[in-house]
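Fig. S4 source data, part A: sequence.
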Amino acid sequence: MRAAAALFVIMLLAGCAAEAPVVEAPSMYADMAMAGARLDAAAAATMISLYRQNNGLGAVEVDPDLMRLAEAQSRAMADKNKLDHDVRAPLAMRLTGAGYRANIAAENVSAGYHTLAEAFSGWRDSPPHKANMLKSGVTKLGIAASYAPNTKYKVFWTMILAAPEKQPS
């Protein structure tokens, strides 16, 4: 009888455990230091926008062209195992070469941070990077993280913020 009661309690508890919701970590904590890792650009835009809004500035939104430029820059740094704004060319030349016309543009690069939260914290704590994130007038964002397992840093980050020129109507 006791054995049957114990078995009943165990099965009841097992049923409760199966119904417990699985809590997923926010995407800002996703580890980019693994093959196939995907950066959540919308979460990055939200994080940067909230930071900007807390400092009296406007939000930014993901721009597909800036995403491509950020991805190319991160990949180039990862391929060359070199943290450098100019690994391919200076930002202004890369924007012009891609046909992206901007009134204002700024770029943050970094390496070694495994998560978006870490990269953001590093930029926030660095006066020049913080100034870029709080640049007045920017409205668009492109961000990328490239994983390079056989390098010192493992993950190379690029964030481009810009205010595109208004096109004539």
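Fig. S4 source data, part B ends here. The chain has a mean pLDDT of 89.
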